[in-house]
Design a protein that fits this description.
This protein has 75 residues and is α+β, with helices and mostly antiparallel strands. Helices cover 27% and strands 43% of the residues. A 5-stranded antiparallel β-sheet has the order 3-2-1-4-5, with helices on one face. The protein is elongated, with a radius of gyration of 13 Å.
């Protein structure tokens, strides 16, 4: 199964962005999208595949947090 995660663009250098995923900052390729600093992007396999609205990104981040909590509560 493949999962794409939403993150916040913090900085851009050419086609590479520094994207914040809940405090983890990762370099992401922006070659497929037109993103700006402050945008939320959906990232799969190191590539931004969509620029998202903030509320949609937040909704996905909340869902992933709930799933993570469920997994760790089972241990």
């Amino acid at each position: 199964m493949c999962v794409a995660l939403p993150g916040l663009v913090c900085a851009i250098d050419g086609d590479t962005a520094l994207v914040d995923f809940r405090g983890n900052k990762v370099k992401v390729n922006l070659g497929l999208v037109d993103a700006r600093v402050g945008d939320y992007v959906l990232v799969h396999a190191g590539m931004a595949i969509e620029v998202m609205k903030k509320d949609s990104a937040q909704e996905l981040m909340d869902i992933f947090e709930e799933l993570e909590a469920e997994v760790y509560d089972r241990d």
